[in-house]
Fold these 3 entries.
Entry 1:
Amino acid sequence: MDNKQLIASELAKVLTSLDQEAILNLLEQPKSSDLGDIAFPAFSLAKIERKAPQAIASDLAQKIDSSAFEKVVATGPYLNFFLDKSKISNQVIQEVIKEGSNYGQQDQGQGENITIDLSSPNIAKPFSVGHLRSTVIGDALSNIFRKMGYNTIKINHLGDWGKQFGLLMVAYKKWGDQKAVEANPIDELLKLYVRINEEIKNDPELDEEGRQWFKKLEDGDPEATELWQWFRDESLVEFNRIYDQLGVQFDSLNGEAFYNDKMDEGVQILEDKGLLKESKGAQLVELDDYNLPPALIKKSDGATLYITRDIATAMYRARTYNFVKNVYVVGQEQSNHFRQLKAVLKEMGFDWSDDMIHVDFGLVTKNKQKLSTRKGNIILLEPTIQEAITRAKNQIEEKNPDLENKEEVAHAVGVGAIKFYDLKTDRRNGYDFDLEAMVSFEGETGPYIQYAYARIQSILRKANFQPDPAVDYSLQDPESWEIIKLLQDFPRVIKRASDNFEPSVVAKYAISLAQAFNRFYAHTRILDESPERDSRLALSYSTALVLKEALRLLGVDAPEKM
Ligand code: ARG
């Protein structure tokens, strides 16, 4: 039984005016652990029983059966419970040992599907830090949902359609060079795209040409299709290099183009339900009732839009995956788009529109300035990842020059550092992209946690420790107790992260656990001969196991040696 439940059931035996559920909801954590582990505040009883809360608390302290606890003490208006540290520490450690990496696994999801729209960069455009955030957050959420018993489908909804491809074709045919594109696809294609947008200003005819080429593409013209395919393939080669570095995989690469021939059904429903209004030749859905601007579904020339494709996409996902949740990990700047999308689908009569969640996130800055290609304040992802790995390697050289697989470890630390820094931030907040802070071994960083993990592994190797389910691993000291409470909390932490679509809950937890272990380590000679030696090793073992699992949920590797 969970600690709070134990307390609530004991309290319920001596309290007539509140039921167990109500008591459970009142339980809180004392401000300091010297005061106890869990507190019952007597304020709300004061009104019911017409007595001072202090009197109620001391009265309860007399009546309650305290044999299941270390002690139960009334302190002012609170009844403070001190849990039985010896008993609970052994229980928790044995449970972690027994479950192994399965510890914290839950069945809330019952194997139901959650679709996760993540990463979703645009073909022929650079992979931005926003796409990095989406990739890293989406991947972590997928791991967290799986730990809650859901099945996840990670969909990279590539931005591979739109009028810009027509313009790009015109630019390529005029100024492009196949070899240059092959050598540096996104760079070259972006240059072409920027150039044509410049030249359009003097030569509006180019815009019309672009429109025609896009029309050709939409009509399946072989030359246009071949060029489009080529741009897409070349861009993907580049994106895949980044995904390889990050160690992220997808279940589907169905992007915008996939929905070209799937939009009619949605538009037809809108029409049948009388939801389409005409305005200057364009078709739109009014969303006044939702306090939103109208959603433009078709332009006056009949062209479809981003949202038109997203309507088809959502319908396809509902049908194909029968999701319990359809999650979109996309930056805050698209909030209105997703509100409109949800509202339109609601109007269309799809109840599952309630299960669509825009998991939004804030902007990344560099040197506290907004990123801007124009002002040269940009983050080029591949060189940046490389730089993180190099920095990690330099620190490893310094700390442990004899380490065997330095390259591999440097990769895990460098990439882990970038991911962890992103994930520890409440996702709605932005952050400043500061490589030095990210890769630091001190502070609230990925390397700090990885280092704590590797330190434990080294201790366990020295002791040649093997956990034994028959041994009693009880501990009583305050440093161990802080760790025990955290270990016990892990399943709830995962649930909270899942319910709030917030990987930072897991990241912050991992920081607390690593810090608690380091305090224990500073205080205790773990390897010294002592009656508690085995318990201390078992506690270290369990801590390492949970640290590794928390990092895994965040998509961060934990090297055995560092
Ligand atoms: N490609 C878009 C962008 O880079 C993100 C797509 C998000 N997913 C979606 N289903 N709309 O801004």
Note: The chain has 21 helices and 13 strands.
Entry 2:
Amino acid sequence: MSLKDKLDLKELPRHVAIIMDGNGRWARKKGVARMFGHRNGVTPVREVVEASGELGVEYLTLYAFSTENWSRPPEEVKALMALLVSTIKKESKKLDDNNVRFSTIGDISQLPNVTREQIRHLKEKTSTNTGLNLALALSYSARWEILKAVRDLMNEALDGKVKAADIDEEKFGSFLATSDIPDPELLIRTGGEQRVSNFLLYQIAYSELFFTDKLWPDFSKEDYYAALLDFQSRERRFGKTSEQL
Ligand code: FPP
């Protein structure tokens, strides 16, 4: 029996977020350049997108490039941007055919023009799709997002459009990059590190965290099902007692 058959499809997380880590170490283990690891990271992206669509997960957010990643060696940054463009070009028809709606979170004004253009094109092409909502976090960090939300809210307050007393979770959430995405119930991180690295810090308040030693290029559909099964074994109490649930 495959792990997939053990899943309760009625108890899936609506939103899964993934920190795809370990490409560099995967490459080093093989004695090849880091970029080779990133290129081999495209296959598991395809796998988790496909599996999410097949199972009926509604939202999938992938941490593809953090604000901090801009400080990597310039040639790695350039090659990652090129990989992004070629992957979007190659996958856009399949994503559209599979009813995937594509979006991004992050400061994409920082990305090269050609990357932004591909992103804009894919967003537009898939904007009316009704299947999986796939968001790539690009030039994203949670502290950037939260500070931007505070600045935007302050500007609205100064314009008299919002009062301090009106700022509740719903209002604040509407200023975040994820304003039209529910909070993730499950956050997966590959690559063996047990930290959240400035990813969706506000939104993961009640998320279940799943860490695996698998390096991202080795992460398969079976590994994804294993993470979802583990999620289904957790008791989510949201501060209540077991008896109250
Ligand atoms: C982290 O591994 C990975 C990244 C910073 C880039 C993520 C990119 C991909 C998965 C490539 C394909 C994705 C798309 C959407 C085209 P790392 O370099 O930090 O690994 P390390 O910790 O082992 O050095």
Note: The chain has one domain: 13-141+185-232.
Entry 3:
Amino acid sequence: MGFKEEISALLGKATGLDENEVLSAIEIPPSQELGDYAFPCFVLSKKLRKSPKDIAEDLAKKIKASFIERTEAKGGYLNFYVKQEEYAKAILEEKPGFGKKKESIMVEFSQPNTHKEFHVGHLRNVFLGDSIVRMLRNQNYKVIPANYLGDIGTHVAKTLWCLKKFHADEKPDKNKGKYLGKVYMEANKKVKENEAYKKEVSELLQALEKREKEITALWKETKEWSVKEFKEIYEDLGIKFDTWFYESEEDEEGKKIALELLEKGIAKKDDGAIIVNLEEHGLGVAVILKSDGTTLYLTKDLSLAKKKFEKYKIDKSVYVIDSRQSLHMKQTFKILELMGFKKEMLHIPYEFVSTKQGPISSRTGNTYLYEDLKERMKEKAYEETKKRRTDWNEAKLKGTSEEVAKTALKIGMLKIDNNHEIIFDEDEWLDMEGETGPYTLYTAARIHSVFRKGNVKDVEKPDYTKLGTSEDKNILRILEKEKENIMKAAETYKPSMITRYLLDLSQSANEYYHKHQVLKADEETRKARLYLLKKILESLERNMELLGITPLEEM
Ligand code: ARG
């Protein structure tokens, strides 16, 4: 039982309130001067017909326990100060809990389109999805990470058309994915300038949808180029998928569903097309089959959604997709519901990434390709590390700068709440100071280095009275929140909460050894501080792992 629970029990007895009610009312004050826990007495003033101030003063006199150092009535609050040594012991000796086995959830994320470039904007989705998978697993959900490649449609037709028409006798030997991205951009430009080209593209798409031999061969060959590139990127970033879905494989089943909807009277014919009128739900009119019989993005999502539940026996289906597709997702879920397919499905939207030069867009060419970007950031991290680590060999410098670059990207992307736009800024993200990835990596590496320097192998439970300063308290107050923070972050799909925790703990840890000697302190204090550092390190590394960050022992 934590202090919060013990205090709730005491307050429950003293006031006659339900313990759980008290528990949910108890707050952790914003600064340690206001106590470790606070009870807002206004929740009682109606019942007792007394002012919060009087209630607080009354209770302050009544409530006593051996772990409570003192209480204080202030501003209608009753503040509790726990004996610091007991507080330290309780927090540092708490085991990270896992909870019981939970339901199975499929998390669909990344979903890039083939025959297009992979740019920095795509990374936000990848990092969000991967971190959500990790957080849910930590909470003991059974998680199936899934990808859904956009391997068919107008964008593919454009690229193939341009390849055939203008690049027929070229054969790229490497960076084929990047090559396709370039061709795609070129195609966009050309199509915009010439009406006749548009028609050619749409003819090509029809041939492709009918799987005509020649174009299908080219499609399959080039699709592999993209898929190979994507897989390299995932490998590079340590991202794993258990299942791969493809838009091109959802056509047929999608068509069947559209016809079934028509038969059931949920959909109707309109000018040859099949539509579902969702106006009464505020979701407009959704076309689910074109008049030429071809399917749409939405049609395929109907089929995919069913497949996920039927084939994978999941309890819940989560989609990490750009907020611009919110209407699309609502239409998908609503149509399924009208069909009687009532399952737990959730869209997790996020805002886009732009640069100081404006939004990232494959059409305008402001793309920040992942490949280029990563090389550049690695190079910068390399230069920076080399300056500090003149004695390191090439391999060590390279390995370290690779992790620094990746962590800079992850923290940069994940520190912002899903609902806010990100302005990508590689130099700021790479900075060793400030709220960055390198800063958290450095914090953990610095603790490792203290242990190396002091030749410390094991730490034992210390004399907790030696952790009595307000900087100790600051750290303990952060550590106390870890468990609940992870739980909330997982339940609300917000890796930004984990990032916040990491940055706060890093900052307090750095302040700590700025202020206090560790290795040079007297024997007992040294032991206690090393123990605290060890706990900080474990917590940092545990939370890094939830963001897919690999900690470094040296930096
Ligand atoms: N490939 C699509 C795009 O880039 C995203 C797919 C999202 N997932 C889905 N089930 N609709 O726009």
Note: The longest strand covers residues 142-149.
